[in-house]
Amino acid sequence: MRMNDMLKPAEVDLLYRTHHAWLRGWLRTRVGCHENAADLAQDTFVRLLRARQYSPLKEPKAYLSSIARGLMIDQFRRRALERAYQESLAHLPEAQAPSEEQRLIILDTLERLDQMLHQLTQRARQAFLLAQLDGLSIPQVAAQLNVSRATIERDLTKALAACYRLRYADA
Question: What is the DSSP string of the chain?
Answer without folding.
Answer: --GGGBPPHHHHHHHHHHHHHHHHHHHHHHHS-HHHHHHHHHHHHHHHHHS-PBSSPSSHHHHHHHHHHHHHHHHHHHHHHHHHHHHHHHTS-GGGPPPHHHHHHHHHHHHHHHHHHTTS-HHHHHHHHHHHTS---HHHHHHHHTS-HHHHHHHHHHHHHHHHHHHHS--
